[in-house]
Design a protein that fits this description.
Elements (H helix, E strand, L loop, with lengths): L1 H56 L4 H10 L17 H16 L1
Pfam families: COX16
Keywords: Membrane, Mitochondrion, Mitochondrion inner membrane, Transmembrane, Transmembrane helix
Family: Belongs to the COX16 family.
């Protein structure tokens, strides 16, 4: 009789905890969906306001890029090696600047 009584008390407590957990979980799910909706709406509103300005500023066309390529000298170019993973990029840049300076003098 004692074991049945303690089991029922334990079962009752576990049901209360489980119900509480379900309500908290539902609050997080429902509240989170409303919160996400608000943040997404803010993002879309900002995109509407500033997105058109960015499109107006970015006037890159095929013709302008072709004109840039026409201006560049593609026959006289130099292959420049980038620094290796184990090399310090700043020291490599200093060495290249020194070599270029000595080459022009």
């Amino acid at each position: 009789a004692y074991h049945q009584l303690t089991y029922r008390i334990w079962l009752n407590k576990s049901q209360i905890i489980f119900r509480f957990f379900l309500t908290i979980l539902n609050l997080y799910i429902v509240g989170g969906s409303f919160g996400l909706r608000e943040f997404a709406q803010i993002r879309y509103d900002v995109h509407k306001l500033h997105g058109k300005e960015k499109l107006k500023q970015n006037n890159v066309t095929l013709e302008t890029e072709y004109k840039k390529l026409e201006k560049s000298d593609l026959d006289n170019w130099e292959n420049i090696r980038g620094p290796q993973l184990w090399e310090d990029s700043r020291t490599v840049q200093k060495q290249r600047r020194e070599a270029a300076r000595l080459k022009t003098e």
